[in-house]
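Lab manual, section 2.4: Encoding a predicted structure.

Procedure: take the sequence of the chain (152 residues), apply the prediction step described in section 2.3, and record the output as structure tokens. A sample record is shown.
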Amino acid sequence: MSYFWRLFLWSVLFLTLFSCKRDYEYDENASIIGSWKPIKATAYKTVAGFTVSQSEDMNACQQQSKMTYHSDGTAIEMRFDDATGNCEKTLERNFTYTFNSSQKSLVHTFQDGSIKNAEVVSITSQKLIVKGKKEINGEMYDVEVTNIKLNQ
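Recorded output:
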């Protein structure tokens, strides 16, 4: 898979998740606080009534990436990728967030003023699946990212 595609899937980070089963668990008492690493991303689009999708399991390098949510509404995102042949940190940034469990919404507000909205389609004490939209080459895709909680 090309570097651009992997970067796209990870950049969407927490902004969409897709599963064929659609039997998501949603524990309204589960906390988003803590560190989460991505394990799978799926981009999909419906064309002429057919859904086309492409999934990627994150490799060992990409799984070093993480989002850490703090109880004060601040968070840190770190991304790793091995597109150059070496596993390297490609991004580290701070941002603020709001999570509304009853509305299943997660909003990231970045220091440059940009905002990313996501739907939390599944959350338990150990698993978080988020869904959002991403434009690629002029076309809109839905993306789902599955994350697991890191033990602190």
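Check your result against the sample. The first helix runs from residue 3 to 11.
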